[in-house]
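Researcher: Please predict.
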Amino acid sequence: MKNRIHKRKLKKQFFPNILTILNMFLGFIAIGLIMKGEYYNAGILVLFAGLMDIFDGKMARILGISSKFGLEFDSLADTVSFCVVPSVLVYTLYVDGLSPLLGVIFSFIPLLFGTIRLAKYNLEAATDVPKKYFIGLSTPIATVTLCAYMLFNNQIGGADQYGDPRTALVLVVILGVLMVSPIHFPKAPLITFKSGLTNSLLLITFIFCALALVIWKGFVLLPICMTYIIWNIVLWMIRSHQQSLKARHLEETNLMGD
């Protein structure tokens, strides 16, 4: 009986792990394409790697087989696809004309801040109750945003046009800081309309964005990413201000009581 249960569990674990492996594999192929100068195709593979990263965790939760191994394995795959890939992309595409040292520093930002972000996430997941938000921008969103900038400019400017390197490097720094910031960003919604109004609204938005991406491709991806980032920064600032006002009011009330 125990052997049968163990075999069933192994079969269930196979599916999310395959998606994680695909995530890593797509990131690995993207690195090769970047080194060949095929930046557009590498960007498309990163988008698919992001989808694999979303669905492997969702599938593990649906099947009830979330595990520490799955968490660590997923982070290692993310390191390849969403930390190494953007660093190689920046080094190959956006640092020409800079001094070698400065070019390396800028290129190292996605790898450094991305791995810090993943390490913090693993610590939070191991000790805290599950949250519906990330603390700090997730590495997939940061990488997809950088690729969105590249694809947007390629779609507008045509072949061999991937955007102003100066703007790209400013974006790299901002994304790096956001990854290790205390700002809250919502996670991808559960694939169900039975998990509350907030999740349903997020799911509808996610579906709409996916359809818009299929129709308008590179034109719409960058606006979607920037709207997601800016909207959540503004929300976090408003909530933080409200919390500080409440704390101040409570402190004043306590002082008056004394």
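Model: The chain has one domain: 2-226.
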